[in-house]
């Protein structure tokens, strides 16, 4: 999401100083994205600062989107959790402006943290993901799927508190695109991918189908990026990145950043399986396994350091890292044209510690009680071991090659020295 410099006036009907719905005074622009612009605002009735998210006119003019937006806003307003940005109100101004009034979080985003720190320590990365998963678990229990989990949508306050934003907003547009009721500029629903390519689950790319497991996949990608400093898949275009999610397995983080605990390798691979049925089934299951991984490696709770200076006035990010709508070859057709690489059949899984989950802030009625989540994590254990053995072989070959070069150089030097001494003799 590109950010404008603080204090920049808003353009269009919601200019700075406009009072929406007779109550919310619009202030400076805080952030601008493909679907909306976020302003600092004031609730004049309660005399409190708020954030006002104003929808793009192309969306606000579509009655179907507005109905879906209002429905999703009501659902998001029912979410109550310290890790979720609170929704205070939603409305339509007399000039047609559609807006959402949110809790104002002073600080930056997880993207700002990654820009400054590049990689987080495993203990800190787990802290971030556990907070995100706790928020997702609450939303999923209310039947609300986020659909766009990414660092830009995790706010970090000045005190280091983490909050997930934009629940419901993406769903309103995604549903309209999926059933063809939302005007997308002439593209068909199959041509439309809505979300951030670097974090899209394979099923989102192929069919637009989403459920809890799509959020689990995106959260697993976020954990990979926190541990390594980069998303697992790159490409020249957003579509190229999206289809790599369909056809290429996410590698173990330790293959990119050595030293990451094996338990976190297994956790990432279990959360990012390309087949949703082989993935951790819910945010609750992912959270339980994240806590198990923390105990297994004795990783302490480590809060995230808030960004020192949130990035402002930046150019728009490349398509693969920004929330936008983009068109291209039909997802199903493009996925079929690029043949997927052969899957590696899992070998006998290794046993892990079966310690029970830590006490939670609320009962986990939807926690798997038959060991299903444990099986997903155990099932990737041997794959992690193969990655580790391959990495060790590569390291050994490099050491041997360096030794050969060193011995060769020493032998050559000794030969030259002998020749020189012999040539200089009587």
Describe the structure.
The termini are far apart. This protein has helices at 57-60, 63-77, 110-117, 122-141, 169-178, 202-207, 212-228, 238-247, 262-271, 283-296, 331-337, 372-379, 381-423, and strands at 19-20, 24-32, 36-43, 48-55, 87-92, 98-102, 107-109, 154-157, 162-164, 192-195, 324-327. Helices cover 40% and strands 13% of the residues. The radius of gyration is 25 Å and the shape is elongated. With 426 residues, the protein is of the alpha+beta class. Residues 1-13, 180-192 and 312-370 have low confidence and may be disordered. The strands form 3 sheets. Strands 1-2-3-4-6-5 form a 6-stranded antiparallel beta sheet. It has a 3-stranded antiparallel beta sheet with strand order 7-8-9. Strands 10-11 form a two-stranded antiparallel ribbon. It has 2 domains: 1-104, Phosphorylase Kinase, domain 1 (2-Layer Sandwich), CATH 3.30.200; 106-384, Transferase(Phosphotransferase), domain 1.
List the helices and strands and how they pair.
Elements (H helix, E strand, L loop, with lengths): L18 E2 L3 E9 L3 E8 L4 E8 L1 H4 L2 H15 L9 E6 L5 E5 L4 E3 H8 L4 H20 L12 E4 L4 E3 L4 H10 L13 E4 L6 H6 L4 H17 L9 H10 L14 H10 L11 H14 L27 E4 L3 H7 L34 H8 L1 H43 L3
Antiparallel strand pairs: 1-2, 2-3, 3-4, 4-6, 5-6, 7-8, 8-9, 10-11
Helix pairs in contact: 2-5, 4-7, 4-10, 7-9, 9-10, 9-12, 9-13
Mean pLDDT: 78
Shape category: elongated
Distance between the termini: 79 Å
Please mark out the parts with pLDDT under 50 across 5 or more consecutive residues, or reply none. Answer: 1-13, 180-192, 312-370
- Which strand-content bin applies to the residues? 5-15%
CATH superfamily placement of the largest domain: Transferase(Phosphotransferase) domain 1
How many independent structural domains? 2
Quantity of strands, as a count: 11
Helical proportion, percent range: 40-55%
Number of helices: 13
Going by CATH, the architecture of the largest domain would be Orthogonal Bundle
- Helix-strand topology string: EEEEHHEEEHHEEHEHHHHHEHHH
Quaternary structure classification: single chain
CATH class of the largest domain: Mainly Alpha
Largest sheet strand order? 1-2-3-4-6-5
The helix/strand class is alpha+beta
Q: Main beta sheet, described?
A: 6 strands, antiparallel
């Amino acid at each position: 999401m590109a950010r404008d410099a603080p204090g920049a006036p808003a353009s269009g009907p919601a200019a700075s100083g406009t009072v929406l719905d007779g109550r919310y005074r619009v202030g400076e622009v805080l952030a601008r994205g493909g679907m909306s612009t976020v302003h600092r605002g004031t609730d004049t009735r309660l005399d409190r600062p708020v954030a006002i998210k104003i929808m793009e006119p192309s969306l606000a003019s579509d009655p179907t989107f507005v109905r879906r937006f209002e429905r999703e806003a009501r659902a998001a307003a029912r979410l109550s959790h310290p890790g979720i940005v609170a929704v205070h109100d939603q409305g339509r101004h007399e000039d047609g402006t559609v807006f959402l009034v949110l809790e104002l979080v002073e600080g930056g985003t997880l993207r700002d943290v990654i820009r400054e720190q590049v990689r987080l320590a495993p203990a800190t990365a787990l802290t971030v993901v556990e907070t995100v998963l706790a928020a997702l678990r609450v939303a999923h229990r209310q039947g609300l799927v986020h659909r766009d989990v990414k660092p830009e949508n995790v706010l970090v306050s000045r005190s280091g508190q983490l909050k997930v934003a934009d629940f419901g907003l993406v769903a309103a547009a995604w549903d309209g695109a999926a059933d063809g009721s939302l005007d997308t500029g002439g593209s068909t629903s199959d041509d439309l991918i809505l979300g951030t390519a670097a974090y899209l689950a394979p099923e989102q790319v192929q069919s637009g189908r989403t459920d809890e497991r799509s959020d689990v996949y995106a959260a697993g990608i976020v954990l990979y990026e926190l541990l390594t400093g980069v998303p697992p898949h790159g490409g020249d275009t957003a579509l190229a990145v999206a289809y790599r999610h369909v056809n290429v397995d996410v590698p173990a983080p330790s293959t990119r950043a050595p030293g990451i605990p094996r338990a976190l390798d297994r956790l990432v691979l279990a959360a990012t399986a390309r087949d949703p049925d082989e993935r951790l089934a819910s945010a609750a299951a992912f959270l339980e396994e994240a806590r198990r991984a923390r105990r297994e490696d004795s990783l302490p709770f480590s809060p995230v350091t808030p960004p020192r200076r949130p990035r402002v006035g930046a150019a728009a990010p490349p398509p693969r890292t920004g929330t936008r709508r983009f068109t291209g070859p039909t997802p199903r057709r493009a996925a079929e044209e690029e043949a997927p690489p052969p899957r590696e059949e899992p070998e006998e899984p290794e046993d892990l510690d079966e310690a029970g989950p830590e006490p939670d802030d609320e009962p986990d009625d939807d926690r798997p009680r038959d060991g299903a989540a444990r099986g997903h994590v155990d099932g990737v254990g041997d794959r992690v071991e193969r990655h580790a053995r391959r990495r060790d072989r590569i390291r050994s070959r490099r050491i041997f090659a360096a030794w050969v070069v060193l011995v060769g150089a020493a032998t050559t030097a000794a030969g030259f020295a002998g020749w020189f001494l012999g040539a200089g003799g009587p």
